[in-house]
TrEMBL record:
InterPro entries xrefs: Leu-rich_rpt (IPR001611), LRR_dom_sf (IPR032675), LRR_domain-containing (IPR050216)
Gene3D superfamilies: Ribonuclease Inhibitor (3.80.10.10)
Entry keyword Oxidoreductase: no
Protein's recorded name: Leucine-rich repeat domain-containing protein
GO annotation, cellular component aspect: cytoplasm
Residues passing through the membrane, by range: 20-35
Record keywords, A-Z: Leucine-rich repeat, Membrane, Repeat, Transmembrane, Transmembrane helix
């Protein structure tokens, strides 16, 4: 009898332990489930702190005056393989940037952001633009640069898109969907042979980036403000290019077949920048260009350049890595306040005194042997950089003590000689 009671007691204890263990497991499961869904109960500030702790300085935000987060940005995070679901708490997001990460797909929860206008996905191995992207009814900007996307989904053209970037994607040619975007303002394309003949029908297009085999039809885009035509293969630009009323920025880097700019460029109202870096076949700039105010003129690696128009209304001239043995004719007759010729073969800068507006002169790493006396006519000169030349003496040059002069690296010349 005692034995039976002992057995019953042991069984009861085992049942009690089992019951306790069962409730313990259930409690743990409930806690884990709660932890998985608890983001909905967290504030934007708490989620922000969580993301800060996880990603540090690689995540950034824009917070509006009312405290809600309108922009989130993840940059250069190789371990990021999906868009963090935690951002769903930011209900008022207008902009999402996921740059140079390893995100492979766009999640459907992106449609929950009813105010989303800007989506940047550059540098991610995304293969597909999903059809549900068409539910982002306010989407204006889509950046697919350097992704593996090959096409747009059906209905994509119904979005209010103004900016499309598909450079270095698998989307080739001039996509037909673009014609549905009446408000298209900015477009980056993969290289194409030439623009469609009706490119002028895009009445609001302001910025175009594309490498072309032919520059045909460029002069028909009357709304254009900026062309980036780097690495194009065309030999000449349309003669009517300078008649575009709003054009103010022209980038032609490494257009190695280009041998001249059109004379009509003198009709432009202004150029914030003109960049012909690496255009080695260009020997001169059109004479009419001296009628156009130019902010920055870039002449890097323009080894064939021999002359520019006298009287260029330019603020800053840059020419790096040039084989010039003498300064191209006309540069010393420009109105430039900054002249930067770096890594060159120039031996003599006599004539520099004609640059009455010159404030900063940087001619480092060349073969200049002396500072000419007419440099004292550059009465506005504040900075003179001549390191890495072969200067032997000042050649009776008088340089104001107010000029920051750096001639380090010259074998027998330094600032002390100027003072003496």
């Amino acid at each position: 009898m005692i034995h039976n009671k002992t057995s019953i007691g042991a069984v009861q204890r085992k049942l009690a332990i089992a019951k306790y263990f069962y409730y313990f497991i259930i409690s743990v499961v409930i806690m884990l489930l709660a932890g998985c869904t608890n983001n909905n109960d967290m504030t934007e500030h708490e989620i922000k702190n969580y993301l800060d702790n996880k990603y540090g300085n690689d995540v950034n935000y824009k917070t509006e005056k009312d405290g809600h987060i309108s922009k989130v940005k993840f940059v250069d995070i190789p371990s990021l393989i999906e868009i963090p679901e935690e951002i769903r708490i930011f209900k008022g997001l207008e902009e999402i940037k996921i740059i140079n990460c390893n995100v492979t797909e766009i999640p459907e929860f992106i449609t929950e952001f009813t105010e989303l206008k800007y989506l940047w996905l550059e540098g991610n191995p995304i293969k597909e633009l999903p059809s549900f992207i068409t539910k982002c009814h306010k989407l204006k900007l889509l950046d697919l640069t350097s992704t593996n996307v090959s096409s747009f989904p059906e209905g994509f053209g119904e979005l209010p898109i103004t900016n499309v970037y598909i450079e270095n994607t698998r989307i080739q040619g001039f996509p037909r969907e673009l014609y549905q975007f009446d408000g298209l303002k900015e477009l980056n394309l993969n290289p194409i042979n030439e623009l469609p003949s009706d490119i002028g029908s895009f009445k609001k297009l302001k910025h175009l980036k594309v490498a072309l085999k032919s520059f045909k039809y460029l002069d028909t885009i009357e709304s254009i403000e900026s062309f980036t035509l780097n690495n194009s293969m065309g030999s000449h630009l349309p003669e009517g290019l300078g008649n575009l009323p709003l054009l103010n920025d022209l980038n032609l880097r490494y257009c190695k077949n280009l041998f001249k700019l059109p004379a009509s460029m003198g009709n432009l109202k202004m150029l914030l920048g003109l960049d012909i870096t690496g255009c080695s076949r260009i020997t001169s700039l059109p004479s009419s260009l001296n009628q156009v105010p130019i902010g920055i003129l870039k002449l890097d690696e323009c080894n064939g350049l021999r002359s520019v128009p006298k009287g260029l209304q330019v603020g800053s001239i840059w020419a790096e890595n040039v084989t010039w043995k003498s300064m191209p004719v006309g540069i010393f007759d420009s109105e430039a306040s900054d002249l930067n010729v770096i890594n060159h073969q120039i031996t003599d800068i006599t004539g520099i005194g004609r640059m009455k507006n010159l404030e900063n002169l940087n001619m480092t790493n060349g073969k200049i042997k002396r500072i000419p006396p007419d440099i004292n006519k550059c009465t506005k000169l504040n900075l003179l950089l001549l390191e890495g030349n072969e200067i032997e003496n000042t050649y009776n040059a008088e340089i104001s003590e107010n000029v920051d002069t750096r001639l380090l690296g010259n074998p027998v010349f330094d600032r002390k000689q100027i003072d003496e």
